[in-house]
Amino acid sequence: MAASGGSEQPQRVTTQTAAGAAPVLAEGADTAGDAAGGVLGLDPSAAEVHLTSRPESASTARRLALSVIRMWGLPQYADTVELLVSELVGNAVRHTGARSFGLRMRRRRGWVRVEVRDPSRALPCLLPVRDLDTSGRGLFLVDRLSDRWGVDLQPRGKTTWFELRVPER
C-alpha cells in the first residue's frame, strides 16, 4: 500500500448517475480536493465513481473515501477506510485486467459500506499470511479490520465490499 508521491499523473475519472444515465467523463482530473466531491465534484456516496485501472488511482480512491468519511462526521474511521480502500483498489488494479473499476460508499443505520466493482468474475482469495510474507496481505487486512466483507457476483463482474460498524446517526 505505497502512497504515490507528488508525481501523480492526471487521470480519467467518470461517474455513473443513479438514474442510469450515460457516464459523465472528465479528462485530466485534478486529484486535489478535500471536501466530499472535491475531486471534480465526484462523490462515491451519491453515485458510483469510475476510475481508470492504474496504480495511481488508489490515491484518488483514498482521497474520495476520506472526503466522504469526513462529510459523514466519522474521522475516527479514516485510517481504516483509507487502508482498506487501498487494498480493494489494489486487488482490482493488479488482478482483474480491467480498464476501470468503480468505487461506491453507502451509509445506513449503524454501518458504513465501501464497494469496489470491477468487470472480472474471478473471486478474490483470502490466503494465509506468514510473518515474512511481503505480498498477499490485502484481503487478510480487510478480514481483520472490517466487521464484515464479501463479494457479490454480478452478471458482468463483481463487487468486493467491506462494512464497518459506526455510531447510529
Describe the structure.
With 169 residues, the protein is an alpha+beta fold. The chain has one domain (11-165): 2-Layer Sandwich (Heat Shock Protein 90). The chain contains 3 helices and 7 strands. A 7-stranded antiparallel β-sheet has the order 2-1-3-4-5-7-6, covered by helices on one side. Strand 6 and strand 7 form a beta hairpin. Helix 1 (57-71) runs antiparallel to helix 2 and helix 2 packs antiparallel against helix 3. The termini are far apart.
Which percent bin holds the helix content?
A: 10-25%
* CATH class division: Alpha Beta
**CATH H-tier superfamily:** Histidine kinase-like ATPase, C-terminal domain
* Tally of helical segments: 3
Q: What is the secondary structure topology, with strand pairs?
A:
Blueprint: E1 11-15, E2 24-29, E3 49-52, H1 57-71, H2 78-95, E4 100-108, E5 111-118, H3 138-145, E6 148-154, E7 157-165
Helix pairs in contact: 1-2, 2-3
